[in-house]
Every structure is written in structure tokens, then in C-alpha cells.
């Protein structure tokens, strides 16, 4: 067992593959931790305190300091405890693993929700998308990862193995709900082989949720979704004329306010950038959209970033816009506005 400096707690939910992958990582590392089972219908005060923005699991709390988002947590674990490295040393290999892990989460989660919560044509569409994403993943694995190895990582489990294989039991549950095979030796031989190798490990038996319990949980989600008049009402409202634009503007402003509050709590006051005296990664992420903020404000007919509602973001953007690199790199407003208007007309 590796020594843990400070208390380590994992807030999770038994059916979530995002939580399962974190559990497996901690067990691989031999790190002792306390698992706190969350009821997502009645979230604990601790969960809401540690993850006030997304209010979801998993949350890893190390010596009182929270780390959120499962992929971020996996890399935090790998950097904190060196035993059994989950990521390779080569920067390009790490980048490709991050790409495929991100692809898996962004593509498969929506399709999974469609298979569980939809019926008839909508479910068929979700099944088709799920299979297409599997084919893309299979082809990517074939081109980028070593053949003849039991795992994506080679001889031992790595980050991408945890991302994909933590959903093993969900694959079989989805197959029952969809009435069709999703992962098999004929259509996805590499993914099938890697999952089989993972399922032979004791850590899989010890950590993955049992099939029957998971199926019952999924059937409960499906019944609730299909019987929910609120769900269909939301769908109708979303598709109503003008409804989507108003909803999008409201959501955009809410997310800006959340970002503003987060900056206020986590970053040093009185500095020109998030990073301090010089631009850092978060500055580049936010400030690269500066000109888009003004374009979106014109399209929305309202101010989005200003000194009154988002003073910190406004101030940091002003600091960035004074740099020569901003003038040299950002697209010109008029050209960007014309592009956005063209996209709008096309839609």
C-alpha cells in the first residue's frame, strides 16, 4: 500500500462508470481511501460543498481539497501516486490517450442515454450512433495501439483501459435494452478482446457493479423517462420557435456567472490574468474566445461580458486585449461577425 499524506475520500455512486474508473485506479495504486456512497436524488451537503458547480460525482477529496471530473481525477491520482503508472512518458502518446478518453466520454454518454430513455425511432437512432462510435473507436485502437497486447496500455492497465473497461457491465445492460449485440468478436474484435482480458482480473470482479442490479437500475431510469410528461414537455418547449435561442442566452449567462464566482474564489485578486502576472492555460482557453463574446452579444441583442455582471472576466479580458499577441492572433470582429451571420442564416 502506498502512503497517503492526508485523508482521502471518494464521493461516488455505485452505478456510475465514471466513479468505477476512479475506484479501479485507486485500487491499482494500492491507495487506501474511504468510499462515500451518494444518493443523487438527495445529494449530501459535502458533495454540494466540494463540487458546487456541477454537483455530481465522482469527487476525490484529498486532505480536504476536492478534485472533480473523472478524467482529471485519474491524472491527479497518477501524478500523486507513482506506483503503476496509468499514462506513458511520451508526450504524444499521452495526448492521444487523452483524445480517445475524451472521445469516449463525449460520444458514448449521450448515445447511452438515448438507448435507455428513448423508444422506437429515437432509440434506433441512439443504437445506430452507439455502434458508429464503437466502430470509430475500434478503428482508432487498430491504428494507434500495439496489436497482440491484452490492454490498450500494453501488458498492464492504463488510463484508457479504465475509461473503456469500467463500462463493461453497462455494455451488456445496453444490449438487453437495445435488443441487439453492441460489442462482439465479429464487429469490434479489439474492444471485445480488451474487455475480456479486463474481466479476467480480480479487480474487475471486486469493483464492477453486478449485472442484475445494474439492469434493474437502468430499467428504473427507462420507466421514469418514458412515463415523464415533464420530459416530453421540456422537449416541446425546447423545440418551440425562439425557445432555443432564449434558453441558450440564459444558459450562457448562468455559466459566465458560475465562472466569475469560481475565479473570485480560486484565483489571486488584483492580478492581470488567471495565471497571475502572465497568461497561463486557463487564460488561453477563455481569452481565445474574446472576439466571439462580442459577436455573440450582437447576435443575442444583449451584453454577455461586462464590468457590472462579470467584473473579473471583463478585467482579465481587457488585460489580454492590451497584449500585442492578442492583436496579432485573434480574428477581426467584422470578419467573425460575417462568419457567424452566415452560420446563422444557414441554420
TrEMBL record:
GO molecular function, one term: glutathione transferase activity
Assigned keywords, A-Z: Transferase
Domain GST N-terminal, chain residue ranges per copy: 6-85
Family affiliation: Belongs to the GST superfamily.
Taxonomic classification: Eukaryota, Viridiplantae, Streptophyta, Embryophyta, Tracheophyta
Gene Ontology biological process: glutathione metabolic process; toxin catabolic process
Record-linked CDD domains: GST_C_Tau, GST_N_Tau
Top-level enzyme category: transferase
Protein name: glutathione transferase
Entry-linked SUPFAM superfamilies: GST C-terminal domain-like, Thioredoxin-like
EC number of this enzyme: 2.5.1.18
Domain called GST C-terminal: residue spans: 90-215
GO cellular component, one term: cytoplasm
Gene3D superfamilies: 1.20.1050.10, Glutaredoxin
InterPro entries per record: Glutathione-S-Trfase_C-like, Glutathione-S-Trfase_C_sf, Glutathione_S-Trfase, Glutathione_S-Trfase_N, GST_C, GST_C_Tau, Omega/Tau-like, Thioredoxin-like_sf
Pfam families: GST_C, GST_N
Catalytic activity of the protein: RX + glutathione = an S-substituted glutathione + a halide anion + H(+)
Species name: Acorus calamus (Sweet flag)
Amino acid at each position: 500500500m502506498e502512503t497517503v499524506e492526508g485523508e482521502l475520500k471518494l464521493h461516488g455512486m455505485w452505478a456510475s462508470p465514471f466513479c468505477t474508473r476512479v475506484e479501479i485506479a485507486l485500487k491499482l495504486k494500492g491507495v487506501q481511501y474511504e468510499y462515500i456512497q451518494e444518493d443523487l436524488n438527495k445529494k449530501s451537503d459535502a458533495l454540494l460543498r466540494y463540487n458546487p458547480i456541477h454537483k455530481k460525482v465522482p469527487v476525490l477529496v484529498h486532505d480536504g481539497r476536492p478534485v472533480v471530473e473523472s478524467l482529471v481525477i485519474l491524472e491527479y491520482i497518477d501524478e500523486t501516486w507513482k506506483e503503476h503508472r496509468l499514462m506513458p512518458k511520451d508526450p504524444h502518446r499521452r495526448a492521444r490517450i487523452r483524445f480517445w478518453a475524451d472521445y469516449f466520454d463525449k460520444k458514448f454518454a449521450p448515445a447511452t442515454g438515448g438507448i435507455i430513455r428513448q423508444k422506437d425511432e429515437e432509440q434506433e437512432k441512439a443504437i445506430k450512433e452507439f455502434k458508429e462510435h464503437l466502430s470509430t473507436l475500434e478503428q482508432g485502437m487498430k491504428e494507434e495501439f500495439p496489436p497482440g497486447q491484452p490492454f490498450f496500455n500494453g501488458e498492464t492497465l492504463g488510463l484508457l483501459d479504465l475509461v473503456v473497461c469500467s463500462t463493461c457491465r453497462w455494455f451488456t445492460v445496453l444490449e438487453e435494452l437495445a435488443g441487439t449485440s453492441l460489442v462482439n468478436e465479429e464487429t469490434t474484435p479489439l474492444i471485445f478482446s480488451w474487455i475480456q482480458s479486463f474481466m479476467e482480473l480480480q479487480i474487475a470482479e471486486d469493483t464492477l457493479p453486478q449485472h442484475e442490479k445494474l439492469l434493474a437500475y437502468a430499467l428504473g431510469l427507462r420507466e421514469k423517462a418514458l412515463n415523464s410528461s415533464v420530459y416530453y414537455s421540456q422537449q416541446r418547449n425546447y423545440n418551440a420557435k425562439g425557445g432555443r435561442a432564449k434558453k441558450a442566452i440564459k444558459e450562457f449567462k448562468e455559466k459566465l456567472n458560475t465562472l466569475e464566482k469560481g475565479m473570485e474564489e480560486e484565483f489571486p485578486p488584483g492580478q492581470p490574468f488567471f495565471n497571475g502576472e502572465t497568461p497561463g492555460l486557463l487564460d488561453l482557453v477563455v481569452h481565445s474566445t474574446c472576439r466571439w463574446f462580442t459577436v455573440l452579444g450582437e447576435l443575442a441583442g444583449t451584453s454577455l461580458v461586462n464590468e457590472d455582471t462579470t467584473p473579473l472576466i471583463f478585467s482579465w479580458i481587457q488585460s489580454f486585449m492590451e497584449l500585442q499577441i492578442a492583436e496579432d492572433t485573434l480574428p477581426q470582429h467584422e470578419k467573425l461577425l460575417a462568419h457567424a451571420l452566415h452560420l446563422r442564416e444557414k441554420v
